[in-house]
Amino acid sequence: MAETAAHSALDPLEPRELVPPHHTDRTLNDTLLDYVWQKPGKGWFMLFGISLCLLSLLVIGLTYTVAKGIGTWGNNQPVSWALEIVNFVWWVGIGHAGTLISAILLLFQQKWRTSINRFAEAMTLFAVMCAGLFPLFHTGRPWFAFWLFPYPSTLGAWPQFRSPLLWDVFAISTYLTVSALFWYVGLIPDLAALRDSSKTKLQRILYGIFSLGWRGSGRHWHNYKIAYLLLAGISTPLVVSVHTIVSFDFAVSLLPGWHATIFPPYFVAGAVFSGFAMVITLIVPARKYMGLRDVITDRHLENMNKVILATGLLVSYGYMMEHFIAWYSQSQYEIWTFYVNRARGPYWPVYWLMIACNVITPNIFWFKKCRTSIPIMWVASIMVNIGMWCERFIIIVTSLHQDFLPSSWDMYAPTWVDWSIYIGTLGLFGTLFLLFLKFIPAVALSEVKEMQLELKHAAHAAHAGHANDTAAAGTLTHGAH
């Protein structure tokens, strides 16, 4: 009974399924800090070189855009929003898993977030940085971007606060700021651990500066816990609000395919769906080559696959409701958009690829064998991200290229500049992520140690309870005699 009570006081998942009990503080230090101190291997340099090559495409594409104008993109009339906004929504969605894993699961005291939250938080920051480039350059004059902020204007020209595009500016900047603070506060104890284990004076100085004088005192831990919980509470509504505001870019218009009240929850579910898929895509190879299988266990991966399944079902429900409302309303424009243009129109391969990746693929996770198979989940996560990119393409391009006026219909095709900017942001993301893996512990060392300590206390309580039960049984037996 005492053992059951001790386990029930913990997370529904037993900690020994998340951290092997044979680890000590010393072995956890060696496991989680070793990759930072060792020299980069050939694989890291190869991936870093590929990322830099892709990043050069971003520099070329943006430089050419600034020099020649956005007429170098494939945008036309009526498709004035095209690949850049597709990529913007895609990257913002990928950034949602970090806040969900870190903030919401922390508030709900879910222990399985511990080993994966650092990965997800870093992914959030880098994805939002990539996303911010697209609307900035889509304005055509990024050097006037400060006009979007409500500074005192001597010309009397103020931003149009009724425009959802301006809401994006505030939503994305707030999301990036809070996410960066949340990520950095969680890093402070681990940066201090790196400072204390530094082997050179330069390393000690740099990590010492960024650890902000952390000494691990009771006062430091008290302030750390309060700040971390406050930032988690602030971050939680951002998960819902940010992608809701992104969906308002479309939902507040009158265009068939966009004018839908289901867009806010449907976009939020899709964002978490794609975000968790990207975490799986990144964490599976990193877990293998960084030797983190003991702290990022199969149970962590299985739980993330369950979230992908749940959010995939929500996305599928959103698709069904869009088609149902189009039929139920009997609006000829909505029926044309959903039943003719998207499913059988010129972009039908993209539409059916979206259905295959977003509707069919997640359902394999109903089966435990698929949820726990590393190759299957990794391939499935890549397919989900492809499907979510296709979804954003379908929403934006197919709704625009055939609008209310048939005489203005036109096809859209991205140019090499569009593709170079998109591929370049993949390079930017990869470069930042590889630098993160090399210079910062990829797993939150202090939180894993805390869970390990909790496991030991639970084992001790269970052992003490078992001893008490044995003693009580002996006493009863002796009394009976």
| Total DSSP E strands | 0
The largest sheet, given as strand count, sense and whether it forms a barrel, is: none
Oligomer: single chain
User: How much is the radius of gyration in Å?
Assistant: 25 Å
| Structural class assignment | mainly alpha
Order of helices and strands: HHHHHHHHHHHHHHHHH
Brief synopsis:
The protein has 17 helices and no strands. It is mainly alpha-helical.
Molecular structure report:
- The protein is mainly alpha-helical.
- 72% of the residues lie in helices and 0% in strands.
- It is built from 17 helices and no strands.
- Helix 4 packs antiparallel against helix 15 and helix 5 crosses helix 10.
- The longest helix is centred in the C-terminal third of the chain and has 36 residues.
- It starts with a helix and ends with a helix.
- The relative contact order is 0.17.
- The N terminus is likely disordered.
- Pfam families: NrfD.
